Amino acid sequence: MNRQRLSMLTLVVLSVVLHGALMPYLTIFGGRLNLLVAVVAGIALYYGTWVGMLTGLCTGLLADVVLGHVLGLSAVPLVLIGFFTGQLERRVYRDAFLVPVFVGLSASATFEIVVLLLSRLAFGTWWRRAFMAAAIPTILINGAFMPLVFWFLGRILPRNKEV
Amino acid sequence: MGFWGRNRQAITLVLTVFLLTGLLSFSARDQVGATLLEQGIRSAVAPLQRATAFVVSQGRDVGKFISDLVSAQAENERLKAELENLKFQFNNLVEASLEVERLQILLDYKIDQPGLNLVMGKVISRGLTSWQSEIIIDIGSLSDIAINDPVVTYSGAVGRITEVSASTAKALLITDPRSGLAAVVQDSRDGAVAEGDPSVPGMIRLTRLPRDFRVAVGDLVVTSGLGGVFPREHSFVIGTVSEIFISSDGLLKYARITPAVDFARLEEVLVLRKSRP
């Protein structure tokens, strides 16, 4: 395993662990930074669709195994986020400040909505009220923090796309 | 490039989502517990989770400690302010209570002296320097105060009015060396002039007394009324003889008097309006 893959794997594992252990204590107005979304979207914006989808799949499945109890609940939205964000990689100038903000907002909204729908599918229950209370702050927080996450990823991830 | 070549990313996405949704559906229905693979992954990640949880817990403890410290500091500040406020209110109440006591005593004194036309004034200022024994009171000509009106308290003589304005008056205290007050030793009835003792601020002395002047330590000295300031028909205590000195030539003697009035704590006085009703 080369250094690039190792650093990405470390990032994925760390994001899952921190998402479960640290983020619940850092809530702002009921919402919190979704590290899974931020990392997957950031990597996808950096390396494109394939890497984005793969990262989304690995991160999602790992999160489902470690943090959840239903496989696919996080993996589906994260794969979607990896795909669509990766599509932007060749189309936008990713270093523009507003690009990570837009990606953070849209990716987070995608994650929240897809998880809500899949929860309905998996458990037969609507978490509509909880969703309404937490989703908007979470989406806004992800939009606000995404430039920071993206800048951080740019510092630690190798520029070579041969991952 | 064929259909697959053009759309392989989208096709992969659709297939992946389809598979994952199936997995989700299966996983949600089949709640038989974690598979061996899941257990292995969880076991592998668990130490990292534990370490992170430990660090986060310590961080939260430190954060809570700091937060408690900050809130305790804020609480402390609030309580301090509240305490200061209560102290202020308490002091005001104590002051009011003491003032009521003093005024009651003055009122009683005034009632006990029906022949004297007394009016009460509050001391609002003192002399410019510590060696000037003067006070300013909050009543003046509007209260029929006039120059040379005697100023007293229930303890004894205080001084005389030297300047009057509409609403204030300045009084020269009997402890000022510039004052001269006709006095008499209460027991012997020997008369002399009492004035402020320049060598001991705050004290009074009887000066140039003849050798045969009958005075002893402990004698009470009162106003005689001969000077035209204090009334003749009513004596006010000046003080008590505390020391007696003989002049160097042995011809004269001096008596030092400790004032009956505590001038340092003078807050209210009575002015005797002599000739007016």
Describe this structure in words.
The complex is a heterodimer of chains A (163) and B (277). By secondary structure, chain A is mostly helical. In chain A, 73% of the residues lie in helices and 0% in strands. Chain A has a single domain, classed as Arp2/3 complex 21 kDa subunit ARPC3, CATH 1.10.1760. Chain A contains 6 helices and no strands. Chain B has 277 residues and is an alpha+beta fold. Helices cover 38% and strands 27% of the residues of chain B. Chain B is built from 2 helices and 12 strands; from the N terminus they run ααββββββββββββ. In chain B, strand 10 and strand 11 form a beta hairpin. The interface between A and B is medium-sized, with 29 and 23 residues.
Write the layout of secondary structure elements.
The complex is a heterodimer of chains A (163) and B (277).
Chain A: H1 3-21, H2 35-47, H3 49-66, H4 75-88, H5 98-123, H6 128-156
Helix pairs in contact in A: 1-2, 1-3, 2-3, 2-4, 2-5, 2-6, 3-4, 4-5, 5-6
Chain B: H1 3-29, H2 36-112, E1 118-126, E2 134-137, E3 150-153, E4 156-164, E5 169-173, E6 181-185, E7 191-196, E8 204-210, E9 220-223, E10 237-246, E11 252-259, E12 268-272
Antiparallel strand pairs in B: 1-2, 1-12, 2-5, 3-4, 3-12, 4-5, 6-7, 6-9, 7-8, 8-11, 9-10, 10-11
Characterize this entry briefly.
Chain A has one domain (3-156): Orthogonal Bundle (Arp2/3 complex 21 kDa subunit ARPC3). Chain A is built from six helices and no strands. Chain A has helices at residues 3-21, 35-47, 49-66, 75-88, 98-123, 128-156.
> Gap between N and C termini of chain A, in Å?
10 Å
The chain-level structural class of chain A is mainly alpha
Number of distinct helices of chain A: 6
Q: What is the topology, as strand order, of the major beta sheet of chain B?
A: 1-2-5-4-3-12
* Largest interface pair: A-B, 29 and 23 residues
Task: Assign an overall shape of chain B.
Answer: rod-shaped
Distance between the termini of chain B: 127 Å
The Cα radius of gyration of chain A reads: 15 Å
Written as H for each helix and E for each strand, in order along the chain, the element string of chain A is HHHHHH
Give the total of beta strands of chain A. Answer: 0
Order of helices and strands of chain B: HHEEEEEEEEEEEE
Total strand segments of chain B = 12
